[in-house]
Write a sequence for this structure.
């Protein structure tokens, strides 16, 4: 799964590739927002952890990871 996190006052979004299911990621995000002043913590496929303060999160987008094409392709 590809998770994009928009952070307030940041020019770019954070992108995390996770091996978790969309339901698991949604539950983690929901639990983070339910707590007062907490953090949103996600772990990517390589074991790296991304921690963002909940009050700075603008949006969270959960989507299937799309394969990236390499080289020149004709569409």
């Amino acid at each position: 799964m590809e998770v994009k996190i928009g952070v307030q006052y940041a020019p770019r979004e954070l992108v995390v590739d996770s091996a978790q299911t969309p339901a698991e990621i949604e539950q983690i995000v929901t639990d983070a927002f339910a707590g007062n002043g907490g953090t949103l913590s996600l772990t990517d496929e390589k074991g790296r952890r991304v921690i963002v303060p909940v009050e700075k999160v603008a949006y969270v987008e959960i989507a299937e990871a799309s394969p990236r094409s390499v080289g020149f392709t004709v569409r």
The chain is about 15% helix and 35% strand. The longest strand covers residues 57-63. Residues 6 and 12 are 7 Å apart (CA to CA).
